[in-house]
């Protein structure tokens, strides 16, 4: 079984996927972390994120490992756990440029398709491109303001700055982020986290 949960930035994909996966007793897989890890390593190596080839060669020298734990995924580079650094604002600002390269998307997709089902996969194009065969597909939305208010509880920046950055990231991600034709779109704005998880579990179990 594969369940896909796509959606716009900070719509609740990771929190919801973790809850759904725990209820189903299966892992969840966060595709965005692979794009974030590529961005972090590119920034640390002072590479131009607008150029795919040097970034891809750099990544091929430093293989990454995605660990899909139910309470939250981790990304390892050898013994180094990159996870704590993947949600900093510099990575948020650079990641869409990295994700726009078809070569980088192929690099991420290959790692995801190697994972053995069952799992819940979350991202932008899990239901459309990576796992079109998934048995249940969902796409999460919420207004930029609500998403920014939720995120402000986790970040030092103020709500207006977070909202502006989310709107910009959504615009940059639009090409690869769309609901699959057979996905159920859920506006998480008026719902609690538990209500969103319950809606999805209802859909999965039919
Ligand atoms: N329905 C909800 N009601 C209230 N808070 C929520 C809801 N869904 C998510 N949240 C909160 O919103 C914040 C963002 O959620 P989360 O990190 O899961 O989003 P995301 O879509 O994975 O983000 P990103 O795209 O940046 O990886 C978290 O603090 C989470 O607890
Ligand atoms: N399937 C995906 C997943 C992510 N991206 C890009 O990575 C960025 C970070 O993802 P989060 O889920 O952690 O927000 C996102 O803004 C996209 O640029 C993607 O392209 N496809």
Overall 3D geometry? globular
Number of domains: 1
CATH topology: Rossmann fold
CATH architecture tag:
3-Layer(aba) Sandwich
Number of helices: 9
Assign a percent range to the helix content: 40-55%
Could you tell me the number of beta strands? Answer: 8
Runs with pLDDT <50, length 5+?
none
Beta percentage is: 15-25%
Class per helix and strand makeup:
alpha/beta
Question: In the CATH hierarchy, what is the superfamily?
Answer: P-loop containing nucleotide triphosphate hydrolases
Main sheet, how many strands, which sense, barrel?
A: 5 strands, parallel
| Rg estimate, integer Å | 16 Å
> In CATH's first tier, which class applies?
Alpha Beta
Compute the separation of the termini in Å: 13 Å
Structure, explained:
With 206 residues, the chain is α/β, with parallel strands linked by helices. It has one domain: P-loop containing nucleotide triphosphate hydrolases (Rossmann fold), CATH 3.40.50. The chain is 49% helix and 16% strand. It contains nine helices and eight strands. It has helices at residues 13-24, 31-44, 52-61, 89-99, 102-113, 126-130, 144-152, 159-173, 193-205; strands at 2-7, 28-30, 65-67, 74-77, 80-81, 119-123, 136-141, 184-187. The chain has a five-stranded parallel sheet with strand order 2-6-1-7-8. The chain has a three-stranded antiparallel sheet with strand order 3-4-5, covered by helices on one side. Strand 4 and strand 5 (80-81) form a beta hairpin. Helix 1 packs across helix 9 and helix 4 (89-99) packs parallel to helix 8 (159-173). The longest helix has 15 residues, at 159-173. It binds adenosine-5'-triphosphate and ligand L45E5XJ5. It is an enzyme of class 2 (transferase).
């Amino acid at each position: 079984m594969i369940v896909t949960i796509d959606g716009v930035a900070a719509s609740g994909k990771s929190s919801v996927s973790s809850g759904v996966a725990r209820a189903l007793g299966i892992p969840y897989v966060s595709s965005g972390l692979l794009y974030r890890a590529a961005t972090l390593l590119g920034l640390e190596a002072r590479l131009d994120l607008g150029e795919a080839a040097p970034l891809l060669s750099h990544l091929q020298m430093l293989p990454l490992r995605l660990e899909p734990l139910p309470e939250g995924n981790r990304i390892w580079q050898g013994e180094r756990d990159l996870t704590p650094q993947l949600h900093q604002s510099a990575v948020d600002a650079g990641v869409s440029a990295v994700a726009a390269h078809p070569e980088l998307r192929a690099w991420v997709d290959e790692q995801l398709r190697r994972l053995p089902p069952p799992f819940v996969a979350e991202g932008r194009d899990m239901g459309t491109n990576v796992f079109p065969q998934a048995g249940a597909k969902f796409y999460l939305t919420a207004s930029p303001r609500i998403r920014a208010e939720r995120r402000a509880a986790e970040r030092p920046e103020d709500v207006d700055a977070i909202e502006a950055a989310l709107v910009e990231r959504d615009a940059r991600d639009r090409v690869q982020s769309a609901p699959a034709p057979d996905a159920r779109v859920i506006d998480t704005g008026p719902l609690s986290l538990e209500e969103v998880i319950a809606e999805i579990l209802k859909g999965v179990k039919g």
